[in-house]
Specification:
Helix content is 31%, strand content 40%. The chain has helices spanning 2-17, 41-54, 57-63, 83-96; strands at residues 64-74, 77-82, 99-111, 118-132, 135-148, 157-163. Strands 2-1-6-5-4-3 form a six-stranded mixed β-sheet. Strand 4 (118-132) and strand 5 form a beta hairpin.
């Protein structure tokens, strides 16, 4: 009788620890859920887009090299900023946008391959963002990205982004 009581208590305790209706804990590497292989140029752009779609500043930060420079034209003046400003600005964009959709379109020019340690990619893009459902903006442009890495098997990072948006 005592053994039956102990067995019953243990069974109830074990059953109470699991919820058969709850999904299993996802222990997979989340980077592969929509991001690309950062060792390829195409994978770099897939990951860039995925970081925007998911508003993942940690993932985006992995794409930006320590010596990064972003340049753009602001009312006829060329502006440049470094990695710290880029991360802070992108974090603000990710946190305050209700809608954020980035599409990388055609490659206008590309030098370098997946086997090299430096690549230059000119690519068109479309960015739609909104701070509310009634306040959305669309931006079309062209970007020149310089991608670098230490070895052909290392992940790509952008060291320069020249933005030619309209």
């Amino acid at each position: 009788m005592k053994i039956l009581l102990i067995a019953t208590c243990l069974s109830i305790w074990f059953l109470g620890c699991t919820n058969p209706f709850a999904p299993a804990l996802d222990k997979s590497n989340r980077i592969g859920a929509g991001a690309g292989d950062l060792r390829t140029i195409d994978g770099f752009f897939q990951t860039f887009r995925y970081a925007y779609l998911t508003r993942d500043t940690t993932l985006y930060g992995q794409l930006v090299s320590d010596n990064f420079q972003f340049t753009f034209t602001n009312t006829q003046n060329q502006e440049t900023w470094a990695r710290d400003v880029e991360i802070r600005t992108t974090n603000g964009l990710f946190r305050h946008c209700e809608l954020l959709d980035l599409q990388w379109n055609s490659i206008v020019f590309q030098s370098g391959t997946d086997d090299s340690t430096q690549a230059e990619v000119w690519r068109t893009f479309f960015l739609r963002f909104g701070f509310s459902a009634t306040n959305t903006q669309e931006l079309q442009g062209q970007a020149r990205l310089i991608l670098t890495r230490n070895a052909p098997t290392a992940p790509w990072q952008m060291s320069r982004w020249d933005d030619f948006s309209q």
